[in-house]
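Progress report, Aim 2. The chain analyzed during this reporting quarter is listed below.
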Amino acid sequence: MRGYARQEKPHGDRDDFANLKKLSPYVWRYSKRVALALACLLVAKLATVCIPLVLKGIIDRLDISQQSGTALSPESLSQNIVLVAPMALLVAYGALRLAGGLFNELRDILFARVRYSAMHQMSVDVLEHLHRLSLRFHLDRNTGGISRDLARGTRSLASVLNLMVFSILPTLAEFLLVGVILLVRYEWKLMAAILVTVVIYVIFTVALSSWRMSFRHAMNKYESDANGRAVDSLLNYETVKYFSNEHMESDYYNKRLDLWQSAGLKTQISLSALNFGQGAIVTMGVTVIMILSAREVAAGNITIGDLVLINTLMLQLFIPLSILGSVYRQLQYSLADMDLVIKLLDKTPEIVDAKDAKALQIENAHVRFRNVNFYYNENRQILDNIDFEIPAGKKLAVVGPSGSGKSTLVRLLFRFYEISSGSIEIDGQSIAQCTQESLRREIGIVPQDTVLFNDTIRYNIAYAKPDATDEEVLAAAHSADLSELLSRLPDGLDTVVGERGLKLSGGEKQRLAISRVILKAPKIIVFDEATSSLDSQSECAILSALNKISHNATTMVIAHRLSTVVDADNIVVVENGRIEESGSHEELISKRGLYNKLWEMQKSDSAPAEASILS
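Predicted structure tokens for the chain:
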């Protein structure tokens, strides 16, 4: 449905701590590497904080006048530089700077594998989870909107890890180290001033950033909505063209981008207010601290080196703190984006294998629908007490008016939905007690609308059997009468069919679907109105190919054109989800019931087809 992005819920109900806890296994699978990275982080910060201490020692040694009361001339100062500032301090200064950079880079290298592996595994898990979700979910989703949210959500994991390891933890470590130094060496007033500044800064940042999040949520919502609509319109390109609704699609896209732009402007204005407020708080705090330090120097309680030390520590502390607001905003954005993926991963698959599910074992391929009832909700029953069987090797046709529930039978046989009551059995085995993989491996289908991957003909045919050889693929293509098509294509089997197979005609796509079934060689085959959208000439060619693959298989045919199923072993007539009558073609004609009525209507509309799916 086109409303996926518009149905996006606000993120006020998200639980960030719970979300991080759910994602922690992606990180802690590399716990040793994480521990080493954190150790490198601490060493790097320790080296960084020690640099001002060494610098203080150098300055105090150079401040000869403080020790002797006399100033040295430039000549004598240069001659006694080794005595004034011992080479050990200068070497230590350089070594600490080098160590800080080295261990920062080691931290990055160690953590890179953690970050990329976490993104990799999360992306795979999300895709696998999407495949596990029911058909009901995929009928409701919007491809463009969800793909955008998935991309943002996967990137958000890397963003959260980067912010935690490269911004938040280093800043916290540095703050603690600076606090220890100031408390040990100087008056408590300095640390109190720093603490008050930091508290005011954090409160202001959190409050204003939380207010700004509503604008970011709005931007995400309108961006997803616009992107989803754009993708949807491109997927339905022909429909848009048929109704000349290009302007309607672009107008909707434009209006959503207008809303996105408006939210973006509010985001930028509030960002400027936040940045100015943060700068003002830091400036006032640093000013107060420097005034207190200068008074201590004037009183002779601390040295010039101490003043330089305090100033350097403040720079080291407030420079990362000044971007903490930006880090907080990015963290909030990433957590909001992550919440989208967490909510998706939290969706429980509607169809799950039973705990003791076993692989389906087929010997005769006898299919039985036993008193099957199905409804989407209690107010809308789709199938009512459906009961029939398809003996091994026989062919059953299901016919009836549109909307009578015929195609629903196919989806239930493939277990895309759970039946409400009754059972569906294959060789006496309830499909609810078999693994979904083994069930679907044993059934082949030629659908009404064959949707292909935007890949080569070879890939699309071999999709039924990925390990098939080129010879097997080519043989299946020839058996489905694709030889003429392949001879006309310069690239043959390597021809790319386009998105959803749009470069091929309806008949060509149906032949390709038939070749898949031929290659798969299942014991049970379903034809879901496989020729209903084709003209008579194409239908005859397709029917001939279908006959080849259904000869020795148990077959269920969902048909709209009764002329294609006159030779079925049994025909079940469904109306309003109920079986109204069943029997062979001749038996049903003689009953003068619904089947006969449909037969007469179709016979008067067009001549019977020249071939039968079951002849």
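Strands lie at 367-377, 380-390, 395-399, 421-426, 429-430, 443-446, 524-528, 554-558, 570-575, 578-583. Confidence is low (pLDDT under 50) at residues 1-11, 607-615. These observations will guide the mutagenesis work planned for the next reporting period.
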